[in-house]
Amino acid sequence: MTGRARLVGVVAAGAGLVLSGGCGGGSGGTAATRASGAATKVTGTVTVLAAASLTEAFTRIGKDFAAANPGTRVTFSFAGSSALAQQIASGAPADVFASASPTNMKQVTDAGLGDGQPIVFARNQLVIAVPRGNPKRIAGLADLARSGVKVALCAEQVPCGAAAKTALAAAGVKLTPVTLEQDVKAALTKVKLGEVDAALVYRTDARTASSDVDGVEFPESAGAVNDYPIVALARAPNPAGAKAFVAHVLSDRGRAVLTGSGFQKP
Amino acid sequence: MRDKARTPPVLAIPAVIGVAFLVLPMIGLLVRAPWSTLPRQLATPHVLDALRLSLITSTTATIVSILLGVPLAWLLARSSFPGRRLVRALVTVPLVLPPVVGGVALLLVFGRRGLVGTWLDSQFGITLPFTTAGVVVAEAFVAMPFLVISVEGAIRAADLRYEEAAATLGATRWTVFRRVTLPIVAPGLAAGAVLCWARALGEFGATITFAGNYPGTTQTMPLIVYLALETDPPAAIVLSLILLAVSVTILVGLRERWISAP
Amino acid sequence: MTGPLLDSHLVADRGGFRLDIALTAAAGETVALLGPNGAGKTTALRALAGLLPLGAGHVRLDGGTLDDPARRIWTPAERRPIGVVFQDYLLFPHLTALDNVAFGPRCQGASRADARRRAGEWLHRVGLAAHSRAKPRHLSGGQAQRVALARALAVRPALLLLDEPLAALDAGTRLDTRAELGRHLDDHAGATVLVTHDPLDAMILADRIVIIENGGVVQEGDPATITRQPRTDYVARLVGLNLYRGHADRHAVTLPGGFTLTAAGSASGEAFIAFSPGAVALYRSQPDGSPRNVWPATISGIERHGDNIRIQLDGPIAVAADITTTAAADLHLVPGSQLWAALKATETRIYPA
């Protein structure tokens, strides 16, 4: 039994190495799926710590994964990436870590807690979220600096805040927000409640709240894109499940869900 | 030695465990803190701003709580009106409400599109979210129940007969309240105010949800600590210690006899 | 003559118990309201103080009506010209003795300095000038009582009310305090109503005693009359007499049950006959001598009473008899023993009911 598990691990790791070589997703992903399909069935619970912005997408992926691997169950913990990184560093029992920024991922891998190299599986771009109907007629970043417009940004320490700062600097817009929220969901909530007129959030977040919120694209967002890496963890209680989940995320099916939520391909 | 009442072991042991439970985390902070960075942190304008803001808002919130809470406590303790028990239960709701939920509730009422907020905005041009006043409102919301409960208990325990005696000496109801009831419940009021102040100082969830987070206006110490945790955990520890030190100094400075019965 | 300073008819219902008494007091007079616990004394005092509204009747003080339910007149306590000394004194714990006494004058509008001066004078008058800075918890029982009195008198009340003023004191302190209290009451120009269950307080301090039982007045008069001619068992016990009510026909008083006592005095119609326990002599066998009243009795109780022994006797009438301890020893008395009791007619008092 142990021997075969190790075989699975080697195969999956090999597939991972191929992928992390930086080639385009397609064929590598298929190879991984085929590889895991040929390996032992995965069972048990897989614990995934993922950035808050991945909530909707990963929940669907989790359901797909459980359906494709009967006898498995995926439990998620969605939170700010840095909080998750710290939990892992403090020894939280988890199988997979998906971060909204390479910086937080680096914290984990530098400590030797990652099993193999992290792989970027998605990218997220910022949009301007405005209340339904865009009452203040926001068309771009410059409009945010208009007087009378209340803007919520993420705090700089949070990945989406860092991206917002880069984008605003690139556009040369000096903006005084009314609040610096501690995670992107909180900023989005302020827009939904109508407390602020706009917020810089991820495209994926604006999509999930599409009934209350409109997303306004802006060109500078291309310059500040967040890479989302994923890695199986070294001390995973369920290493087989961890590898399989990572592979599933990178597979066509996983990718379809991510793109559907508004993420871009890496 | 013989005269002193000795604590029975069945009480002493859990008490010691209780003290350890409460004190060890603080000792952890003290032990792991990067003390060398303390002066640098203290000199950071953001930090000093946040500290000043925290002290100002929590003190203001306590004053608001006293002005509104003492009459409320008197009403709950002394007069009987229909629905009094319901009112008392409602007054304690902020105690069991998760602070973030409290913040959301405050937004729904006092936010720009809130039940009362829209009226405040249109009539007076007053908006509370993202202002320092908003911080005070959020802090008072979570902290006032401590004061009300403490003072209500003290008023209840105060002997009504002293008030009768005062009346026979010619004191009007207001004079009785001012010169007899209040001084007698003063220790209970002080204890409640201290609890209230401490709770307001440490409030995080309701303030960030309702008032937001912006340096100088609404960024209090707990918020700075939380954000520091994202990128610079050692800094977060130092900032926590600063907050801890300020709180402990003030609490220890309060003479014990001010908060115990005469 | 406009009538007494205090003119009241107190009618109040307190949970199954009805108070209905008329109480008057002249300026300078001290009236004691005496009765067992539960008689309604405290209710009466609270009604006079304005802490309890009357159900019917009236309270008129110094020409003004304070309470008259029929005419919808009601003055709350703080507007009545009264001073109250409570049983527990109720000195404000957070104020010094001086400020306690100054409290009333300040409420009346005096400046703090003025009120403190007046308070100082009063404390001097009760002999506590040295304790003016003390807080109540540092005062002894007797000292607290005097501060409470000074506090009540400092407002110059038309009516001074005292609720069991000496009850909280131990026997030794009580003696001295009672004497002092008497002097202050004599000096007081207004009317005084003193509520007590201790007959000695009433006898010594009051000019007139009103005895109440079960919410009604059963006897009223000066201490001497009440002592000599009690009209209820309670009063009789209070003053230490055996008391019986029956039908008198010159020297003979027939009690309900048929037993007849012979008295030295005479009366006719409904009458009281009273005699002290010391007037009853006990014999082993039926005596043959001068006492007109002799009857067989059974011992139902034996107790010490001061230096003597008090024997409770059952028989045609129940009496209390006092004998010396030596006599008790000689007679070998035990409950249930059969004895003969003898009472001289000259030791009895007879008076109309």
Radius of gyration of chain A equals 19 Å
What's the CATH topology label of chain B? MetI-like fold
Gap between N and C termini of chain A: 36 Å
Record the strand order, biggest sheet of chain A. Answer: 2-1-3-10-4
Instruction: Give the domain tally of chain A.
Output: 2
Mean pLDDT of chain A: 83
Beta-strand level of the residues of chain A, as a percent range?
Answer: 15-25%
| Poorly predicted regions of chain B | none
Question: Into which percent range does the helicity of residues of chain A fall?
Answer: 40-55%
Which CATH class of chain B is shown? Mainly Alpha
CATH class of the largest domain in chain A: Alpha Beta
Major protein interface: B-C, 20 and 26 residues
* Helix-and-strand structural type of chain A: alpha/beta
Task: Output the radius of gyration of chain B.
Answer: 22 Å
CATH superfamily of chain B: MetI-like
Number of strands of chain B: 0
The biggest beta sheet of chain A reads: 5 strands, mixed
Give a summary of the structure in a few sentences.
The complex is a heterotrimer of chains A (266), B (262) and C (353). With 266 residues, chain A is an alpha/beta fold.
Write the layout of secondary structure elements.
The complex is a heterotrimer of chains A (266), B (262) and C (353).
Chain A: H1 2-20, H2 25-38, E1 44-51, H3 55-68, E2 72-79, H4 81-89, E3 96-98, H5 102-110, E4 114-124, E5 126-131, H6 141-144, E6 151-154, H7 159-171, E7 179-181, H8 184-192, E8 198-202, H9 203-208, E9 213-216, E10 226-233, H10 239-250, H11 252-261
Helix pairs in contact in A: 1-2, 1-10, 2-10, 3-11, 4-5
Chain B: H1 9-32, H2 38-43, H3 45-78, H4 84-91, H5 93-96, H6 99-110, H7 117-124, H8 132-157, H9 160-168, H10 173-202, H11 205-210, H12 221-231, H13 233-253
Helix pairs in contact in B: 3-8, 3-10, 8-10, 9-10, 12-13
Chain C: E1 6-13, E2 18-25, E3 30-34, H1 41-49, E4 56-61, E5 64-68, E6 73-74, E7 82-85, H2 97-107, H3 112-125, H4 141-153, E8 159-163, H5 171-187, E9 191-196, H6 199-205, E10 208-213, E11 216-221, H7 223-228, H8 233-239, E12 242-254, E13 260-275, E14 280-283, E15 293-305, E16 308-314, E17 319-323, H9 325-331, E18 338-343, E19 349-352
Parallel strand pairs in C: 3-9, 3-10, 7-8, 8-9
Antiparallel strand pairs in C: 1-2, 1-4, 4-5, 5-6, 10-11, 12-13, 13-19, 14-18, 15-16, 15-18, 16-17
